[in-house]
What we know:
The chain is 56% helix and 4% strand. It contains 11 helices and 4 strands, in the order αααβααβααβααβαα. The longest helix has 15 residues, at 147-161. It is elongated. It starts with 11 loop residues before the first helix and ends in a 5-residue tail after the last helix.
Amino acid sequence: MGIGQSYPGLTEDVLEDYTTLTYLNKGEILYLMKKFYSIDPDKIRENYHHRFEKDVIIKKFDVLQNNPFQDRIFHVFSSNNDDCFSFEDMLDLCSAMSSECPTEVKAAWAFRIFDLDEDGQISMRDISEIIDRLTGCSKDRFYQLDDESKTKIAHVILDEIKLYNTGGIGLNEFKIIMTRIPEFHSSFYFRV
């Protein structure tokens, strides 16, 4: 095997497939495997597709620690919808966050994260919660924006950007909007 240290299940062919199916290069994939494998080598040797719980992943991949959408990231990228990650789930996340990932693909993933109630659109309710998450507000803090202010902000956003007048922002609208915002590509990113 020409990939340096060997990892059970990660053959040269599988590594080649991963580079074809993701926006990551071999070096990034091997780095991620090294980190993922170090969580518990015995479990990976026993089952290459072992799924680690969210807390374990967050400890090893500190880029996720302070993300206000951490719960949504795990929900969206967890292939079994169990908020646990296999190595391939981690590859999907890192691929979407890669600088090589096209903006339209990033936007599709971002939409799924921001569609908090999973109704197929980013609604006023979603925007209100997004504001709370981005400002670090919670109901037990005194500096939380009041509902009227959040509603005004949501109205302005929806009035400015909705293209099809559906009462929310659909996936196609969101992708169009995000491709027009140059900062989106570099802000929906983290380095492997």
